[in-house]
Write a sequence for this structure.
């Protein structure tokens, strides 16, 4: 009882995620009397360092640094949604009025036509997002672990001119030997973002407004889908994804596989307000997309359309789940990128 309750608590609070609980076979097969079990798990036993941070003081320090910056950028990660602070996040960035870029698997935290959206940085991001991030003099990282796909193996050059304020609920992430924060903040965004909203702030300076326009201009000058892609002899995957996302509704949920299905979609997706975009963060588990799409359809009560983008290699790993989709009448639409092979493998 104790360990099951602890595992459930760890999986659903703080930095939520999978918990490994190894139960020996003899324990699994043992007869028990629930009334005789030892007392259950008490969350007070855990050390939760983010609860000890003075978020009011941290918010004041962040805003003080922001007010002095000329080229600030907010880098939004998956923690924005995991913390349950997404709505407050949108209110916050609109209060700050500075460029916003999105991290890997967090691109749907802000929609493409939002006036503050400036791209998707990373090794498989887009040019505008990388240009804005690399030109910043202040980078405020909210809930991203800045993995290697984000910062590259040449992590010393990541936002090299920027003073880095890095907010994460997990202090271990802030101690990694690659990107070093100048102002590490161990905090839960559901606590810190309201504290930032409560602080008085005058809004963006004239220099920051000019900087925002510079960032928006990068997006106009360096589109992901180039005009010459339209002239491809075969169906170009970037053009295909661009036209697909143009047809999607605001409440559609997109689930992608790995490889081209993920990278091309993440680079080209013109996300609308309310859309969600999912993948398994490049864990390279081929066959992810069909079961994930089924899970999304079930979790949303079959009330939302699910767009499943698969590769021709990956879909073969769980092709039988097409029968599950058909048998239950799930609102899943499957789009297959057939490039005749395991591109992520033979490219390396």
């Amino acid at each position: 009882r104790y360990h099951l309750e602890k595992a459930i608590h760890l999986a659903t609070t703080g930095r939520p995620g999978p918990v490994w609980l190894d139960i020996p076979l003899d324990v699994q097969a043992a007869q028990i009397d629930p009334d005789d079990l030892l007392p259950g798990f008490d969350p007070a036993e855990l050390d939760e360092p983010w609860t000890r941070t003075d978020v009011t003081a941290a918010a004041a320090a962040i805003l003080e640094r922001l007010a002095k910056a000329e080229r600030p950028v907010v880098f939004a990660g998956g923690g924005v949604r995991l913390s349950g602070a997404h709505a407050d996040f949108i209110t916050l960035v609109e209060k700050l009025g500075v460029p916003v870029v999105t991290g890997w698997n967090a691109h749907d935290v802000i929609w493409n036509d939002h006036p503050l959206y400036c791209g998707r940085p990373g090794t498989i991001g887009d040019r505008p997002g990388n240009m804005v991030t690399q030109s910043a003099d202040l980078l405020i990282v909210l809930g991203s672990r800045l993995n290697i796909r984000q910062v590259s193996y040449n992590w010393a050059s990541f936002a090299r001119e920027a003073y880095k304020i890095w907010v994460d609920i997990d202090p271990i992430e802030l101690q990694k030997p690659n990107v070093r924060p100048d102002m590490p903040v161990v905090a839960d965004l559901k606590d810190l973002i309201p504290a930032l909203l409560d602080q008085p702030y005058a809004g963006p300076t004239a220099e920051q407004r000019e900087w925002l326009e510079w960032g928006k201009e990068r997006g106009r000058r360096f589109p992901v889908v180039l005009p010459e892609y339209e002239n491809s002899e075969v169906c170009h995957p970037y053009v295909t994804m661009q036209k697909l996302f143009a047809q999607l509704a605001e409440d559609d949920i997109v689930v992608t596989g790995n490889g081209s299905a993920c990278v091309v979609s993440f680079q080209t997706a013109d996300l609308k307000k309310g859309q969600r975009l999912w993948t398994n963060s490049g864990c390279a588990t081929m066959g992810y997309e069909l079961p994930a799409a089924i899970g999304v359809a079930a979790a949303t009560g079959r009330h939302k359309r699910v767009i499943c983008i698969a590769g021709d290699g990956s879909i073969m790993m769980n092709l039988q789940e097409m029968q599950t989709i058909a048998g239950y009448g799930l609102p899943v639409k499957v789009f297959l990128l057939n490039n005749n092979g395991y591109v992520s493998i033979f490219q390396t």
